[in-house]
Amino acid sequence: MSVLKNLDIDLPQSEKKTLYRLLSLYVFFTIVILGLTVSLYYTMQKELAISQRTILLDEYTNNFLSLLQELQNDKTNTLVYPRDEKFKTSLYGEDYKLIYSTLPDPQKLLTEVTYTNSKKIRYVAQPQKFYLNTQYIVVEVIDDKEWLNKTVENIVLYSSLFFIFMLVLGYFLVNLFLKPMKETLLLLDTFIKDTTHELNTPVSTIMTNIELIDKDSIEDKYLLKIINRIDIGAKTISNIYNDLTYLVLNNKIISDNQDIELKELIEQRVEYFSILANMKKIEVIATLESGVVLNIDSKKLSKLIDNILSNAIKYNKVSGSIYIHLDSKRLSVKDTGRGIKQEHLDSMFDRYARFDTTVGGFGIGLNIVKMICSEYHLSINIKSELDKWTEVTITF
Predict the structure, then answer these.
(1) Where is the Histidine kinase domain (predicted)?
(2) Tens digits of per-residue pLDDT, 16-74?
């Protein structure tokens, strides 16, 4: 939706559906109001045209009767039957039979008093005196549809102006509707940017010092356990920091695409999260096919895999399992965790979407995964059964 892009708002799926419904309702009522107005205007113009034409025919008929009277009283035989290029007349007697007509194909017997069709308008008058034994005078005029053409022009013009006005009004109403949401998202984005900036130095310091510790030389198991916990915490913070950085700098990141061997990279990322998985006694079972290569930025691919693995560990149960499968067509990661409600599956990739508040996070991980998949035209799908399993599949 262009207005959302102009406002730089990334709405969750549910909010988008609500907004689409409101806009659809707005457009529907606009069309209904426009249709009723057009119908009323057309009816009024048609009645006005008929009224004007009736007056015109009445005036001509009165004039025609005067000429006919002169013809009736003419003793010199110099007067001729009155004719007009625009009006055609027919005279009928008491038995409704034709006496005389200027029509090329006149009706021999008058069976209808009045009628109007798409081409002609008939007007019937009964003279007070029977001129030439005439009891009915029928006057016909070709309907040039000038009123209709003018009416259509006005309808098109004013309907266009009305529709443009309603579109402009709708745009401002959408702005008004989205303003509180925009302010909230702006506040959240500002918080994320500030948080990212503040996390940079401490995260780098913690990670560097953890890597410098020689764990094999530590004999105190309690101390080693504490260090491992610090390592897990540092990696969790580092992963969140990387997510925030990617989110903030996404439009400024220049991709360095190269051929990446997926099996090797997946094994590295599994090793990276091994301590976190071991703390929950989660078994990682990987079936990885060799020789599967993608042309992609290595950092973005690592970010994609990290977020999927992180979620598989975070939302898994203690002593659970993670199954990783890789072949030439797809990569799938399946856990034995809490699962996801079916009604939430369509919203899993929305930014800030969180349906389980028992664990930490900003709700941006899968949104980043979706962004990377969209950039490299990869298909991603989530299947789940509540309280049993969740499977994320990426198709190449």
Answers:
(1) 194-396
(2) 666 777 778 888 888 899 899 999 999 999 888 878 887 888 888 888 888 877 877 77
For the CA atoms of 272, 278, 281, 284, the dihedral, rounded to the nearest 10 degrees, stands at: 30
Q: What's the predicted TM-score (pTM) here?
A: 0.50
Q: Which of 49, 44, 66, 52 is nearest to 129 (CA)?
A: 66
Asked whether the beta carbons of 174 and 23 are under 8 A apart, the reply is yes
Is residue 11 within 8 A of residue 20, CB to CB? The reply is no
How far apart (Å, rounded) are the C-alpha atoms in residues 127 and 61?
Answer: 10
pLDDT at position 7 over 50: no
Place of tokens 């260090």: 227
Across the strands, what pairs with 321? 283
Q: Which of 237, 369, 250, 365 is nearest to 301 (CA)?
A: 369
User: Which residue in the block uniquely carries the two structure tokens 């410098």?
Assistant: 212
298 within 8 A of 334, measured Cβ to Cβ:
no
**Nearest 10 degrees: CA dihedral of 144, 145, 149, 155?**
160
For 273-326, write each residue's pLDDT tens digit.
Answer: 888 888 899 999 999 999 999 999 888 898 899 889 988 998 899 999 999 999
Dihedral sign, Cα of residue 344, residue 347, residue 349, residue 354: negative
As to burial, measured by CB atoms within 10 angstroms (0-12 exposed, 13-18 middle, 19+ buried), residue 117 is exposed
